[in-house]
Amino acid sequence: MNPKFSPRLKAVRIDVEPKECFIRYPRHDYWEPIPGTGCARWVAHEKQIQSGRSDEKCLFGYTFRVHVLADTCSEVPLENVRSGDIWISDEEDHAGLVIRVMPNLYPDEIPEITICHDSSRQNGVAINDFKTYFHGRGWFCR
């Protein structure tokens, strides 16, 4: 890591992972943390997604906007969700990765879906249940 970045890394939010590239270069010799949360960028790192304009990417080239992340994939019906799919909130203000899917015994019930996400509310990368923590809301894509 370049030593000139280290003071800027201290300003990166505690919940953001990985921290070393959640900075941008907005003008001559000035580096600053990317504003906002790191959920989309965390997913982009995990899935190697480098879409979007240069001002929508971290220092390593991964997108940090949920709407850009959403534009990179196609929606998947709930019954076809599998591990590795991307979860996007209805408001497109949060994103995560599906890490486990357990089908329910009854066809009318939501499958048990576990989502890993970079959570500002939980101060870092967290694992939560789609049905209870996210109230069964949002959509999935791959």
Short synopsis of the structure:
The protein has 142 residues and is α+β, with helices and mostly antiparallel strands. The protein is built from 3 helices and 8 strands; from the N terminus they run αββααββββββ.
Keywords:
alpha+beta, 3 helices, 142 residues
Outline the fold blueprint.
Blueprint: H1 6-9, E1 23-27, E2 30-33, H2 39-47, H3 66-71, E3 75-76, E4 86-88, E5 95-102, E6 112-119, E7 124-129, E8 139-141
Question: Overview of this structure, please?
Answer:
- This protein is α+β, with helices and mostly antiparallel strands and 142 residues long.
- It has two domains: 6-67, no CATH class; 72-141.
- 13% of the residues lie in helices and 27% in strands.
- It has three helices and eight strands.
- The strands form two sheets. It has a six-stranded antiparallel sheet with strand order 3-8-4-5-6-7, covered by helices on one side.
- The longest helix has 9 residues, at 39-47.
- It is elongated.
- The mean pLDDT is 88.
